[in-house]
Specification:
23% of the residues lie in helices and 23% in strands. The strands form four sheets. An eight-stranded antiparallel barrel has the order 12-13-14-15-16-17-18-19.
């Protein structure tokens, strides 16, 4: 059975998207504003408002993407983890000679919980050449540690300079070359580069109270490049958004499980930002009930954002050439919501699992189990994964993946039981006695007297 490709957007939806972009460009007073929407792995809408290089295809005009660079850097670092060259829990000092925060772990650097300062040593690094900070220690001021490592989220641009240096150390090649060869070219992002390539937009500073502007500098930030150097296009970022949201997974670039792990919050949100958090190289936030993941970016003269909603198989990209003005990530989220609300996602068609997964012994495990007196339902899906949750209503619900060749042992993937072990325990004669989940006992009937219940069942039974 093949799935019918998602249809093109309805004319009313396209007009609503066009209107949102046009309104944002006018009210945000930005010389140009570009937007694209990706659904089921392909760009289903794109538009551009304002001035562009003469004769250029808007989708191929380069804009500086600022901190969106961090997400691409994170993909390279996670490739190193998946290859076994480093661990997320490794102190960065075990791999790299870094005098500042050598005890901070790779995961803490990726998630901005290392405690490092927000900005590099002055002068203002986004507007000054990287030659002012030629070595990694030159990136840091005299007091680079602002918080204890692992205690709180504190956005750190220098932290990503450290990660870029880590990539160079373990790969033996410049960060930009590794990124190009291992991520950009495999994803078809051949118009993404550290330095601008024509056609590209000019970055502008627009006066906040007068309709006048002046050009912004576009410097090579050197050691700080992994935090915000890249230039890219609407077309390239649409391809990256499709990959990042799992619409077009590429295991040769990054394993699907690792992509999903990037979207797991690494630290509690800060006061005042209760709807936002950060994973491994991606920003996470809730909007209108949707959990969104992506990243925004800004450099002098430019704004950029990629917002994805894997559950809706949607992603949006926005680019502008102004230092400030339009709320670039909010616009991208609005574009995504307009499409999702007007044209809800079609579910994947149901199909039976592969015959190899339909082990009769596993099928026999499905159905109702009781935690105490609460009925739970165990369901089996393709890949021998299972879900266990309340038979009715809310409660602790998790999915579990099978562990190796052990057909009756699983590890929790999400929810309350993430990381916990679920086992089917057997009697000596081979019959299933009960399920053990992190020491909780699930039985086929409430308080089964034949099961090893801690504390036992009352000898008098039900009465």
């Amino acid at each position: 059975m093949t799935q019918t490709p998602a249809p093109d957007l309805l004319p009313t939806t396209r007009r609503a998207l066009d209107h949102r972009l046009a309104t944002a460009q006018a009210r945000g007073r930005t010389p140009s504003l570009l937007g694209a929407l990706v659904r089921d792995g392909r760009t289903v809408w794109s538009s551009a408002r304002g001035e562009l290089p003469d004769g250029a295809d808007p989708a191929d005009v380069q804009y500086r993407i600022g901190s969106l660079t961090k997400t691409l850097t994170a993909v390279v670092v996670l490739r190193l983890r998946d290859e076994g060259l480093l661990g997320l829990g490794d102190p960065v000092g075990t791999h790299l000679d870094v005098p500042h925060a050598p005890g901070a772990t790779v995961a803490q650097l990726l998630s901005h919980t290392s405690g490092l300062a927000a900005e590099a040593r002055g002068p203002w690094w986004e507007r000054t050449p990287g030659e002012l900070r030629p070595r990694l220690p030159d990136v840091f001021a005299a007091d680079p540690l602002k918080h204890a490592a692992g205690r709180r989220f504190h956005y750190s641009n220098p932290g990503y300079a450290v990660l870029g240096a880590l990539v160079e150390k373990l790969r033996g090649a410049p960060w930009s070359d590794v990124l190009r060869d291992e991520v950009l070219l495999p994803l078809g992002m051949d118009r993404t580069s550290p330095l601008p390539q024509a056609p590209h937009a000019q970055g502008w500073a627009v006066h906040p109270y007068a309709d006048v502007r002046q050009p912004e500098p576009a410097v090579d930030t050197g050691r700080m490049a992994p935090a915000g150097q890249l230039w890219s296009t609407l077309r390239d970022l649409a391809a990256f958004a499709a990959f990042l949201s799992g619409q077009t997974p590429d295991d040769a670039v990054l394993a699907r499980e690792t992509l999903a792990a990037m979207r797991v919050p690494a630290a509690p949100p800060e006061a005042g930002d209760l709807d936002t958090s950060y994973g491994l190289g991606v920003q996470l936030f809730r909007r209108n009930g949707r959990l969104l993941a992506g990243h925004g970016g800004s450099m002098p003269g430019f704004l950029a954002s990629v917002v994805t909603c894997p559950d809706e198989r949607l992603a949006a990209v926005t680019l502008a050439n102004a230092t400030s003005g339009p709320p670039i990530t909010g616009i991208a989220a609005d574009l995504l919501a307009l499409a999702a609300d007007a044209e809800p996602v079609f579910p994947e068609p149901w199909r039976p699992m592969p015959a190899a997964d339909a082990d009769p012994a596993l099928v026999a495990l499905t159905g109702t189990w009781y935690w105490g007196t609460t009925p739970y339902a165990l369901r089996l899906a393709a890949g021998r994964t299972v879900t266990l949750g309340p038979a009715q209503g809310p409660g602790r619900r998790s999915a579990f993946r099978p562990e190796g060749d052990d057909a009756h042992t699983w590890t929790g993937l999400d929810g309350y039981y993430a990381g916990e072990t679920l086992r089917a325990v057997h009697h000596p004669d081979g019959r299933v006695s009960h399920l053990d989940l992190g020491t909780f006992v699930f039985t086929r009937e409430p308080y089964d007297p034949a099961a090893p219940l801690p504390g036992g069942a009352d000898p008098g039974g039900w009465r």
